[in-house]
Design goal:
The protein is mainly α. The protein is about 75% helix and about 0% strand. It is built from ten helices and no strands. Helix 2 (about 30-45) packs across helix 5. The radius of gyration is 22 Å and the shape is elongated.
């Protein structure tokens, strides 16, 4: 019997150690390390874990500023590569943790637009997610943003509101400086669509 208890202890000890390690709070040496962990969690769709890491690390205003810059750069890198969905998941975290950051709200709209631009039709819930992000960005800023107007054009088209889409697209054209040039083919597609509908 004693031998069975010893064997049980021998087999259970590694599992208990792993269990304790899994529930311990991870610490980070610098904002870059913490940001990487947040990015991985956010990209995987685990916003709760990303927020837990944020709250365990970004306590001072200096840390918060560094984490903001790193998260924003990580999102920007992803949408520049055409991965709007990953960028949007990162920016969702940013807009929750930094509610007054207008640039992050507009970048979230742009990321959602990049994700939508890569498909022929919106996925389930995509139009409403974009519409909510657009409303939040417009509420946070007193100035019109061409990125928000462009995304709003797409939302109106997806909802079948052609006149609303034309009004949004006109606003976009008035504020757009032609950059980034990668958007031009999609802008031309929207223009053709609106001229023929």
């Amino acid at each position: 019997m004693r031998q069975l208890i010893s064997l049980a202890a021998l087999f259970l000890t590694p599992f208990l150690a792993l269990s304790c390690a899994a529930t311990s709070v991870q610490t980070f040496a610098n904002p870059g390390e913490a940001t990487q962990a947040m990015v991985l969690a956010a990209e995987a769709g685990n916003q709760d874990e990303a927020r837990r890491i944020f709250n365990s690390f970004a306590r001072s205003s200096i840390q918060r500023d560094k984490v903001y810059a790193n998260l924003f750069n990580a999102a920007e890198t992803r949408y520049e590569r055409g991965n709007g969905a990953a960028a949007a998941r990162i920016l969702e975290l940013v807009t929750v943790e930094y509610p007054a950051a207008v640039a992050a709200r507009e970048a979230l709209v742009y990321s959602l637009f990049v994700d939508r631009a890569g498909t022929e039709a919106p996925s389930e819930g995509q139009t409403e997610t974009m519409a909510q992000a657009i409303a939040a960005a417009r509420e946070a800023s007193g100035q019109r943003s061409p990125w928000v107007d462009l995304a709003a054009t797409q939302v109106a088209i997806d909802r079948g509101d052609t006149s609303g889409a034309r009004a949004e697209f006109d606003g976009f054209l008035q504020g757009w400086d032609g950059q980034p040039a990668d958007l031009l083919p999609y802008v031309e597609d929207l223009d053709r669509y609106l001229q023929t509908h």
